Amino acid sequence: GGAEVYLCGSNPLSTQDDVAAALVAHYGVATYAIKGEDHKTYYSHIVSCIDARPHLTMDDGCDLVTVLHTKKRNFLRDVFAGTEETSTGVTRLRAMAAGKVLRYPVMAINDADTKHLFDNRYGTGQSTMDGILRCTNMLVAGSTVVIAGYGWCGRGLATRAKGMGATVLVTEIDPLRALEAAMDGNQVVSMAEAVPRGDLFITVTGNKSVIRREHFLAMKDGAIIANSGHFNVEIDIPALDRLAGGRRREVRPFVEEFRLPGGKRLHLLAEGRLINLAAAEGHPAMVMDMSFANQALSVEYLRKKAKTLKKDVYIVPRDIDAEVARLKLRSMNVDIDTLTTEQERYLRTWSEGT
Hints:
The structure is a single chain. The chain has 354 residues and is an alpha/beta fold. It has helices at residues 17-27, 39-50, 63-70, 87-98, 113-136, 152-163, 175-183, 191-194, 213-218, 237-244, 275-278, 285-305, 318-331, 341-348, and strands at 6-8, 30-32, 56-59, 81-84, 106-108, 144-148, 167-171, 187-188, 200-203, 224-227, 248-252, 255-259, 265-269, 313-315. The strands form three sheets. An eight-stranded mixed beta sheet has the order 8-7-6-9-10-13-12-11, with helices on both faces. A four-stranded parallel beta sheet has the order 3-4-5-14, sandwiched between helices. The protein has a two-stranded parallel sheet with strand order 1-2. The radius of gyration is 22 Å and the shape is globular.
């Protein structure tokens, strides 16, 4: 689209170094990202992008926006709009908007139907299991998989785990989602009920300390714990480290064993960070294309409309959502029907009955 682009990682373990190098070598994109970067380096890379004085931000998790609104506020005057890819970031942005601190309009890409119904459900479901299998080589069939959270990511995970032969337990705080999980054929239980039974635990809630000290103590020997929510706070890792008293070691790449008093071993994957990006390659391009089409078309929309928008969080316009779906179907060589003139007229009227 003619923009000057600066890129940084959205998670310390999410970068693929060969991709980052290719973006620099072949596309001339200024890229600040290294797989496994520490906390200081991660935020220094975000600052490097902000130092380019962006006019528009495209975030994944809201860390870029947060730094702009806290430590680099003098750069805010150059920004006219932004987009946010993921549910965690949208939640943070809505909190900012509610607190009247958001300084420019942001499009919630995650809330587009052609994003969360496909990227979150099918993408997360497949890529999370891919990451877990790559680093553990565990047999899912016959195991008990505990999924914390039954949003679209949790739904996708439950479907994949069940399809691979697992017994699926779902934990929830939302009665509507819990009811849906139960009617989808999953066992809905509290985390306290789940922890003695689970072989594999996966958090996808967007909240913190979903699995914590009392849960670690009740888990069986050899339990595996993974996270596919955006941040590594869903698992209380400091509490796990304190319980182990420093008795921890890497037993495989991205698999760390914590030995608790009495000899019980718990295995944490990818430092509690996004397992699908840390140990695998993230979602397939064949589902991410819809998410990034939403990004591109929303950027075009914001470039034209930003001056007319309030400093708030906006849902992707319905016509953009529909256009992404139309383009995706065309790429898949799928044809659908159109309404006849009679059908259109029938839907516009109310007088015609039985």
